[in-house]
Amino acid sequence: MEHTPAAVWLAEATSAAQHQGSGYLLRVVIVVMFLGCAFTGWFLLRGYKRKDD
Fold it and tell me: What distance in Å separates the CA atoms of residue 20 and residue 18, rounded to the nearest whole number?
């Protein structure tokens, strides 16, 4: 296995990212929306919990 300098690796990663298009961004947006909805639901529903002390 060859050692590649960080600058070469970064340049190759940047080049590959440009060819992927908007798929990565769309995945990130969907995951953030899903987590945001789950967190909002949890936050709202925990307010309805009643303590029977």
Answer: 6
Cα–Cα distance for residue pair 16/23, rounded to 1 Å:
13
Residue owning tokens 């590649």 = 4
Q: Picking from 21-25, 35-39, 41-45, which range would have the lowest pLDDT averaged per residue?
A: 21-25
Residue type, 39: F
Given a cut of 90, is residue 10 above it in pLDDT?
no
* Helix 6-20, helix 23-45: angle, nearest 10: 80
24 Cβ contact list (under 8 Å, min separation 6)? 17
